[in-house]
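not sure who needs this but someone in the group chat was asking about AB hydrolase-1 domain-containing protein from Citrus clementina so here u go. i didnt clean anything up, its just raw.
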Amino acid sequence: MTTLGASIFSTDISTALHPEMTSLFWNQRRNPILKRLAVSTEQLASTATTVTSKTTPKRNFVEKESSEAAASSTATAVKSKTTSTGTTYLSEESEGNRKSLKDYFDEAKDMIKADGAPPRWFSPLECGSHSPDAPLLLFLPGIDGVGVGLTRQHQRLGKIFDVWSLHIPVKDRTSFAGLVQLIERTIRSEHNHSPNKPIYLVGESLGACFALAVAARNPHIDLVLVLSNPATSFSMSVLQSTISLLEFIPGQMTLTLCHILSSMTGDPLKMAIDNVVKGISVPPTIQDLSTYLSVLADILPNETLLWKLELLKSASAYANARLHSVKAQTLILYSGKDQMMPSEEEGQRLSRELPNCQTRRFDDNGHFLLLEEGVDLVTIIKGAGYYRRGKCINYVSDFIPLTTTEFNKFCEEIRLRSDLTSPVMLSTLEDGKIVADLSGIPSEGPVLYVGYHNLLGLEAFPMVQQFMIQRNVLVRCVAHPMFFESKDGGLPDFEGNDTLRIIGGVPASAVNLYKLLSSKSHVMLHPGGMREALHRKGEEYKLFWPESSEFVRMSSTFGAKIIPFGAVGEDDIAQIVLDYNDQMKIPFLKSQIEEMNKRVVKLRTDITGEVANQPVHLPLPIPKIPGRFYYYFGKPIETKGKITELP
């Protein structure tokens, strides 16, 4: 394996370095009409003919939309609620523009027509509405090589990334070395052009092996890898045994394509259930499946399929031999029902092998994860805390507003808690009158909500939910940094961490609070921090606040309104049976707590007293149902113009 890895780049790469392709690729920056292409002159001419024909309802992935069309498309695609300050808190894609598996096959069919050029980059038209500072995202396709494997993700990805996709023509036989060289040349050029911005490599199956190979060879470039069911487990997959069968029994090709198609269409039972739940009365027909199989046969004819399988073999071997050299930030997405490769075991193995890696498991999905219903790559990246525009994540400027889909999912996640506690919100109007809603809450920021942390901090999510429902105000939660760190220095990954990041949670620090208030945000702050949330027996509703009000002077700097609030009920519906003192008397739990506290980030190390006594542990409560949460928000305290009154 080592020998293979050392010698693979000595092979001929002339196919990937055609003069026409190279010159056009590097000239695309000087000609904004070209959408980052690497094609031959003849193909560009034929493409231009297709573009100018407005009556042909063909999908086009090459030229940019006109500014008017792009503006119209964006206006149709986004339904957002905006406050008087201009801050968008909720947005959504148009449901009519959501794509399906059928769109993938239609677009793939268009892409492979008269396709004789070398491998090249293209940018889907629906990905043209991103901001100028959006990072580059390169999509590296799987075994199909078409490059439209993100078709269901294009609309959302295009708003926050500059998306390029790699297209490998059906008859192209560029070696693994040549393809890696092509990708490498692209990222090096883009890195030189924007050295302070990360470059995202989204690799599916075979593409994940390309991403790992490129990352291993370029550790100095700021890369973020998002790998979907990596094919590094090819040697243990069912496709491994297919190579010899296809060489000696060409008739096995149909069975292989059927197996690939079944992996793309997913679990039939799950699809049927989804159709019933969503009210879809017409599932994919036999004719549809037959059409899909026909297109798949065009994408992967016998010779191409054999070539791709050999390419998979080489790519997997090379990537596995270079895992120790991969330093890039990596997010691995693996499926629990992958019929092509043992992706679950492979995802766990790679998580152990790669130093800066997180994983996300999708229990009921198959190999072609990014084409399946309900999988939103933008939400996944947001939840993992992997979206950034610079060298480090900025939790204020890099925050992406929630979509209605994300907010509804958040509400569903906390539904049981909300149903059991039925939160009641009380606020204070300007004249001092207390009302049983949130009408006393200012609509414009900056506003700082300062209150007591209930047991385990479970009062925070219902508060965020009610503020969005009643006032369309997103309250940014300031939380302990351990919820945002991965592996060393943080908590193990779990769904609650992702939810906190998606709804706008921010690690506690003076810098982040400064950024939030300067951007006129609504911010939730608990001065008692973890000491209050993880309190001991008999400490219900006891404040553990620092002697100096750390937040008052900063609030005055920006003229923020301070609203004191109290939340009661959480400590009344649960009783602690094992607190920190009890657990430290049990050797097994004591060793776990001590080990965890060696790893997590520590706050308030420069002060003394109980507020600084914040060892991480998990109190064991038992419920006392029924109960109810009550939130009371006091009259806003004006700080504008009062900074000179502070000591």
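also The two ends are 68 Å apart (CA to CA). if thats useful
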